[in-house]
Amino acid sequence: MSDFSVTDSYDTNGDGAYDVVLEDTNFDGVADTELYDTNFDGKTDVQYTDFNGDGITDEVRVDLNGDGVTDYTETGPFSA
Predict the structure, then answer these.
(1) Cβ distance 38 to 45 under 8 Å?
(2) Engineering a disulfide at 45: which of 5, 9, 22, 38 sits with its beta carbon 3.0 to 4.6 angstroms away?
(3) What is the pLDDT along the chain (80 residues), one digit of tens a residue?
(4) What is the pLDDT of residue 4?
(5) Which GO MF terms are attached to this record (predicted)?
């Protein structure tokens, strides 16, 4: 990943809403939390979190049906 500010947001489909949000909570230039709206309904569908800042995802949360509620959580750490 490239360098990030505290929060970077992207509108990938041009509808005026952010579809990807990258947050750097420890100011090391790497996104610690990544939020994705994969079906463009304005709600986070997938969230990746690196709790300890080592660059490896520690938790994945998924909203399977688009209701804004996490349906599935997997904890790691996962390999890089």
Answers:
(1) yes
(2) 38
(3) 445 456 889 999 999 989 999 998 888 888 899 999 998 988 899 999 998 888 889 999 999 988 889 999 999 877 76
(4) 46
(5) calcium ion binding
DSSP 74: E
* Residue type (1 letter), 29: G
Asked if 10 and 1 touch (Cβ cutoff 8 Å), the reply is no
Q: Counting beta carbons within 10 angstroms of the beta carbon of residue 70, is it exposed (0 to 12), middle (13 to 18) or buried (19 or more)?
A: middle
Question: H helices then E strands: how many in the chain?
Answer: 0, 6
Bridge partners, 33 (sequence order): 23, 49
Beta-bridge mates of residue 23: 7, 33
26 lies in which domain range? 1-80
